[in-house]
Amino acid sequence: MEQLLNVKVNIPVKEASCYDILIGTNLLEKADEIIKKYTKADKFLVVTDKNTAKLYKNNLNIKNAHWLVLEAGEEYKNINTLKTILDAAVEHRLERSDCIIAFGGGVIGDMAGFAAASYMRGCDFIQIPTTLLAQVDSSVGGKVAINHEHGKNLIGAFYQPKLVLADITTLKTLDIRQLKTGLCEVLKYAFIEKTCNAPLNYRLFDFLKQHKEEIFDLNPAVVSQLINICCSLKASVVNQDETEKGIRAILNLGHTFAHAIESLTNYTVYTHGEAVALGMKMAFKMSLQRGFIEKHYFELANELLDEYDIVPDFAGYDREKLYPEMALDKKARNGKLRFVLPNGFGSVTVANDVTEAQVLESVDIN
């Protein structure tokens, strides 16, 4: 297919150098030419997983690249796999001026990025996300991490890439579950858009209502615009608060619930997006119960979540353990949990006075 479009979003991070997000079709074939404009690296370590390698290894042509193909899955996002990546960097004698490339979904991006942040105290890093979730969210903003047995992303850093190269052609090979997993994060942006303080009003909520069929059909123009909107909203937030000391916390709508759910189910029952979808439903219920939002908005939000059919059945673990599991959440401050809660159409606030009883009341979303 001929390249249909190429959108560039610039991330003007205050505490780091600016970088671009390139969004388009059939960009993998041009990756070598594009990447050389963003790094002076002589050698590259491409970190991917078995699923991505099987589909796209022959499409990504980068000169002087060594490949590391890992097992696929959140359960491998741990310190052992991090060591494997670092061992490969040492084996291939990468220097500080060389580059680690994350080629895959959010798990690969997080691990390869953390390895890049750690190797020789920081080598170049490029993201080539291949899933919708990674293209709209996890590849943007510089959060990199691995999981710990007691919590998700507990060990990590803030480390910005030199470039994000989002080829939407790769979305065609996602199964419907993985596509919906990405859409969970997309809907999150619709619920926080006003609080992002972006220079433009994208009206993402309305966009999602109007273009549902085209999104599920992966219409290139519509999907590129969707990714552009999400990346632009996140860029606005990251530029205001790169290391999550303030407003960046709003990107975690639903995530305090989600990370505890993932941990309690050993990352094997729900995808990250599914857990976030559950968490957003719980956050909306908590907001309604606390009087933060009116019932009309509560119903509109739930209608959109149900319309996209992204919320799975809630089962498979002891709900009584949910609140204690949240105690290790990275967003906690001074021993108090912080919840991002809707407080109006497209806007959210951060609450640190949530009780265990309120959490248990919010969990019942059926």
Task: Please explain how this structure is put together.
- This protein starts with 5 loop residues before the first strand and ends with a helix.
- It is α/β, with parallel strands linked by helices and 366 residues long.
- It contains 14 helices and eleven strands.
- It folds into two domains: 6-174, 3-Layer(aba) Sandwich (Rossmann fold), CATH 3.40.50.1970; 185-366, Dehydroquinate synthase-like - alpha domain (Dehydroquinate synthase-like, alpha domain, Up-down Bundle), CATH 1.20.1090.
- Helix 3 (79-91) packs across helix 4 (106-118), helix 6 packs parallel to helix 11 (272-289) and helix 11 packs across helix 14.
- Residues 1-6 have low confidence and may be disordered.
- Strand 10 and strand 11 (347-351) form a beta hairpin.
- It has a seven-stranded mixed sheet with strand order 1-2-9-6-5-3-4. Strands 7-8 form a two-stranded antiparallel sheet.
How do the strands and helices of this protein lay out in sequence?
Elements: E1 6-11, E2 19-24, H1 31-35, E3 44-49, H2 50-56, E4 65-70, H3 79-91, E5 99-104, H4 106-118, E6 124-129, H5 132-138, E7 143-148, E8 151-158, E9 163-167, H6 176-192, H7 204-210, H8 212-216, H9 220-240, H10 255-264, H11 272-289, H12 295-307, H13 322-326, E10 339-344, E11 347-351, H14 356-363
Parallel strand pairs: 2-9, 3-4, 3-5, 5-6, 6-9
Antiparallel strand pairs: 1-2, 7-8, 10-11
